[in-house]
Specification:
about 130 residues; alpha/beta; elongated; Protein_unknown_function_OB; tRNA_anti-like
Length: about 130
């Protein structure tokens, strides 16, 4: 009788441990999103995105935050891994993008991470150029 109880307790413990491992690796460590391969939720201009945030930041966050967006705009600044469109959309690239000419019109796809009130910029992360030949 004592052996049956011990075997039952061990079986329950093994089941709990395996369920814990499944939860830990199955739900907590999901693979990161690959924004470059995602279809954009929105395709808009840089000025339209900023005007939406200027008009109603909460509504714009509800629409764009953590969504994949494709933005078209004119390059106004470029550093190593950042391209700024229309002086208002800050696009952070995971890999250094090709050099873009100032005043060149480009299209960028990335994940919207919100509006920076201090710099008055909309921020995009994990960006890629969707028209890299420009």
């Amino acid at each position: 009788m004592k052996r049956k109880k011990t075997a039952l307790v061990i079986a329950v413990l093994l089941l709990l441990v395996s369920a814990g491992i499944y939860f830990y690796y199955g739900f907590l460590f999901k693979e990161a999103r690959n924004i470059a391969s995602e279809t954009p939720d929105f395709t808009i201009t840089a000025t339209k995105l900023l005007s939406d945030y200027d008009a109603d930041p909460q509504k714009a966050d509800a629409l764009y935050l953590n969504k994949t967006v494709e933005i078209t705009g004119t390059v106004t600044k470029q550093t190593d891994s950042v391209i700024t469109l229309e002086n208002t959309v800050f696009c952070l690239f995971a890999q250094k993008p090709n050099k873009q000419s100032i005043n060149n019109k480009i299209t960028v796809k990335g994940k919207c991470i919100g509006y920076d009130e201090l710099f008055q910029e909309v921020k995009l992360d994990q960006c890629t150029l969707t028209n890299p030949n420009n």
